[in-house]
């Protein structure tokens, strides 16, 4: 897997990063935890620019988030689960994965799309409940863009700082993700409180 990711980025540069991040959002086992840190390491070698990597990775992430959203929106839960029973193994997707992502969505609302993009194992699947719950496209796109941008910034910067040790990103990602997620949750709560105050004033 690592050799394939390395060869793709080396051969296609920004296009390779965008392609890999697109596939990462379609096929869960392809890890962004390796793609973006490796791209960050490539920046230290002067082959790519930091912001070019961010734009490429985020573009690929956004393009990859759309297929599952539209499929879920159009076919509905019953047909989607029926399809997953037959073909889900090809993309390592199970009905249990769908149920887990739906539970997250129902528990935390639309904002979970943003936070879900920062959580390994959930980020690839979060488009599905958004589509099943018929989340408005602009809201889905906005939350996905912010979450994907934050995630790609975190991973790319980590790879940039660690250099040749970029593989360590995956090891330390859990605690860092929790800290970042906690900060975003606090910001989201603050935003909700301020919004309620504005409504009361009106």
From TrEMBL:
Q: Which residues form the VTT domain?
A: 30-159
* Keywords attached to this entry: Cell membrane, Membrane, Transmembrane, Transmembrane helix
Keyword Secreted annotated: no
A Pfam family matched in the record: VTT_dom
Q: Please state where this protein is localized.
A: Cell membrane
Chain segments annotated as transmembrane: 12-30, 50-71, 140-160, 172-193
Topological type in the membrane: Multi-pass membrane protein
InterPro entries according to UniProt: DedA_domain, VTT_dom
Q: What is its main location?
A: membrane
* Family membership: Belongs to the DedA family.
Name the chain's protein.
Answer: DedA family protein
Question: What is the source species?
Answer: Laspinema olomoucense D3b
């Amino acid at each position: 897997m690592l050799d394939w990711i390395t060869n793709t980025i080396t051969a296609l540069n920004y296009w390779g990063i965008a392609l890999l991040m697109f596939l990462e959002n379609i096929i869960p086992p392809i890890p962004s935890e390796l793609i973006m840190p490796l791209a960050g390491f490539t920046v230290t070698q002067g082959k790519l620019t930091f912001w070019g990597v961010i734009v490429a990775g985020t573009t690929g992430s956004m393009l990859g988030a759309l297929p599952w959203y539209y499929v879920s929106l159009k076919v509905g839960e019953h047909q989607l689960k029926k399809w997953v029973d037959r073909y889900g193994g090809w993309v390592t997707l199970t009905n249990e994965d769908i149920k887990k992502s739906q539970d997250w969505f129902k528990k935390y609302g639309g904002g979970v799309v943003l936070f879900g993009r920062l959580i390994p194992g959930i980020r690839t699947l979060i488009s599905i409940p958004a589509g099943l719950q018929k989340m408005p496209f602009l809201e889905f796109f906005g939350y996905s863009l912010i979450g994907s941008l934050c995630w790609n910034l975190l991973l790319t910067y980590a790879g940039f700082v660690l250099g040749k040790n970029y593989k360590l990103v995956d090891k330390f990602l859990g605690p860092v993700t929790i800290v970042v997620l906690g900060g975003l949750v606090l910001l989201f709560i603050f935003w909700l409180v301020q919004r309620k105050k504005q409504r009361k004033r009106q």
